[in-house]
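PROTEIN–LIGAND DATA SHEET

This sheet pairs a single protein chain with one bound small molecule, fe (ii) ion, given as SMILES. Inputs appear in the order they were entered. The predicted three-dimensional arrangement of chain and ligand is reported afterwards as a token string under its own label.
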Amino acid sequence: MHLFQSALGLKDLERFYLEVRQTSEALGEPLSDADATVQSMPDASPAKWHLAHTTWFFEAMVLSRHLEGYKPFDEKFTFLFNSYYETMGARQPRPRRGMVTRPALDDIYAYRAYVDQAVARLLTSRPTRDAAELIELGCHHEQQHQELLLTDILHLFAQNPIRPSYRAPAPVSAETAALPALSFTDFEGGIVEIGHGGAGFAFDSEGPRHRVLTEPFRLADRLVTNAEWMEFIEDGGYTTPLLWLSEGWTKALAEGWSRPLYWETRDGQHWTMTLRGFQSLDPTTPVAHVSYFEADAFATWSGKRLPSEAEWEVAAQSLDVDGNFLDLNRLSPEPASPRKVGVQQMFGDVWEWTRSPFSPYPRFRAVAGAVGEYNGKFMSGQFVLRGGSCATPPGHVRASYRNFFPAHTRWQFAGLRLADDA
Ligand SMILES: [Fe+2]
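PREDICTION REPORTED AS:
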């Protein structure tokens, strides 16, 4: 099969599986059954659903096909916890995932334990290469849902008038030094290679590696900050239609957008909802929770533009995949370092909107069968985001990693970096 290139030996795979499963349960730990059951909007899913769906993925894609004599934990769970796999049958409609008050959260943890035991049995029984690859895919899949669990909980808690904290408020960062002025690094462009081509796991949509032509370009050395976004607002950014794409302007009017998703003003002070509760807005941190439409309008207002995904990847290819990811437990983007020279914040903090539609690379083919539904069928009407965020598990992203969301999406940790023609 080898559609998702896998690199792990069985021992490493076992370790990876345990680590991923434990991380999900640690993320669920601060949540009550009620917290984990409510669905705040059709785009978001209950935490309980994430914990169950990732488990169902192992059950349906791996255990039912590759572990002899495996009996599903509960036959009804395929209907409840299938996400979008047409080949796996009918399912609970996405906007109604919050209606599943039963099974209870404890039942879902029992389901997880049952499946974990079965996966452990499979791993010690010399699984086929196909089975091992599917387990590895299931781990990366679960990591994607770990980030969604957090962004969905943030959205849910932001609807609650008492603004609960998912994690205790963090001590204020000692680093309050002024940010570096916005500067740009030049790239000469030409025919460059992008896409996954090396060893190690990658999703199918990251390849094949191929050549692209980029004109000479410049990329901002850091992300756009809250202070810069404030200037955009004060200069009429949300009330000047000439800055906006038509579809974005219509959406902004319809939804009453006047600032990023979680910003609020109280007594002349700016605040924002975070996973650590309601906090005063730090002007030096990267702006987050903006749509593609807002990011594009900001870039137009700046006299710049968003980078293409190829430009972003060319700049990222030589860098270590290092940054403010989930393991640092900050759960919010952090300011750029005034001491670093050159391009920084490429990995972690916030996903960076690119101007590139999520479409197949040359010679991409979705494979037959259920896992072929993973990425390929979403290649319309979405834009690519790069680099990962403060809610992305470490090790999950790469320079070639392509996240994607519709242009109006705001509840992810999404921000932007400016680019320009050189
Ligand atoms: Fe999923």
